[in-house]
């Protein structure tokens, strides 16, 4: 899927579906929060959430006292929905409209988080570009937390193909310049009584 089409696709998704009806909906993103807290970063560390859309991770991080949060998403509609929900708290967050495959960071981050955005990059050049960008964007010993559909998870999401990843597959993508900290597989209870299996891993820039 070309970048322009990808953007149109996600603008349409966020314009027509309520968050509670999206498969990625989580009232409290416990796994992401556990990985972030276990990373050992301070509450003032720079965090970027890739493909964060209007998820509740930003709300949860603010509630826990994290003060330097950036959210990147290809859909401006998604970010506007998040801003409206957060109200005045939205002013505490940096919002960036951009494609994860071609994102050029303007600052360095201590933690890079991505739940269910990376697996939409099915072109190998996009995958390689993403890994290079994440490495460049992270500070020394910065932490990458990434969650994708596992090999036991869906093969499509929101009507388009994804790439499934095992622990070994994710480790291979990020073998250059990172060391693996932790990986696990979890079941995400999606709406409409379905379950999606995820591979979650954390890596430290080496």
Q: What this model shows, in words?
A:
The chain has 206 residues and is α/β, with parallel strands linked by helices. Helices cover 30% and strands 31% of the residues. It has helices at 3-16, 30-38, 57-63, 76-86, 124-137, 167-173, and strands at residues 46-50, 68-73, 93-97, 109-115, 138-149, 156-157, 160-161, 178-190, 194-205. The strands form two sheets. It has a seven-stranded mixed beta sheet, with helices on both faces. A hairpin with a 2-residue loop joins strand 6 and strand 7. The longest helix has 14 residues, at 3-16.
Summarize the structure.
The protein has six helices and nine strands; from the N terminus they run ααβαβαββαβββαββ. The chain is of the alpha/beta class and 206 residues long.
What are the salient characteristics of this protein?
206 residues, alpha/beta, Rossmann fold, 7-stranded mixed sheet, 6 helices, 31% strand, globular
Describe the SSE topology:
Blueprint: H1 3-16, H2 30-38, E1 46-50, H3 57-63, E2 68-73, H4 76-86, E3 93-97, E4 109-115, H5 124-137, E5 138-149, E6 156-157, E7 160-161, H6 167-173, E8 178-190, E9 194-205
Mean pLDDT value: 91
What class, by secondary structure content? alpha/beta
Q: From the 3D coordinates, which CATH architecture would you assign? A: 3-Layer(aba) Sandwich
**SSE order:** HHEHEHEEHEEEHEE
CATH topology: Rossmann fold
Taking Cα atoms only, what radius of gyration do you get, to the nearest Å? 16 Å
Number of strands: 9
**What's the number of domains?**
1
Going by CATH, the homologous superfamily would be Vaccinia Virus protein VP39
Low-pLDDT runs: none
Distance between the termini: 33 Å
Strand residues, percent:
25-35%
Q: How many H/I helices?
A: 6
Question: What is the global morphology?
Answer: globular
Instruction: Report the CATH C-level class.
Output: Alpha Beta
């Amino acid at each position: 899927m070309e970048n322009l089409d990808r953007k149109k696709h996600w603008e349409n998704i966020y314009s027509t579906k309520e968050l509670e009806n999206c498969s990625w909906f989580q009232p409290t993103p416990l796994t992401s929060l556990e990985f972030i807290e276990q990373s050992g970063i301070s509450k003032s560390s720079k965090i970027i959430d890739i493909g964060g859309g209007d998820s509740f991770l930003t709300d949860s991080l603010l509630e826990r006292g994290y003060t330097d949060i950036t959210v990147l998403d290809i859909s401006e509609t998604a970010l506007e929905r998040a801003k409206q929900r957060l109200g005045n708290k939205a002013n505490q967050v940096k919002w960036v409209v951009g494609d994860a495959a071609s994102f050029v960071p303007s600052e360095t981050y201590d933690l890079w988080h991505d739940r269910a955005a990376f697996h939409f990059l099915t072109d190998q050049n996009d995958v390689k570009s993403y890994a290079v960008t994440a490495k460049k964007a992270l500070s020394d010993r910065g932490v990458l937390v990434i969650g994708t559909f596992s090999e036991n998870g869906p093969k499509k999401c929101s009507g388009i193909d994804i790439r499934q990843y095992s622990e070994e597959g994710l480790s291979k993508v990020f073998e250059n310049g990172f060391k693996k900290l932790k990986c696990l597989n979890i079941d995400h209870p999606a709406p409409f009584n379905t379950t999606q299996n995820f591979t979650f891993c954390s890596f430290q820039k080496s």
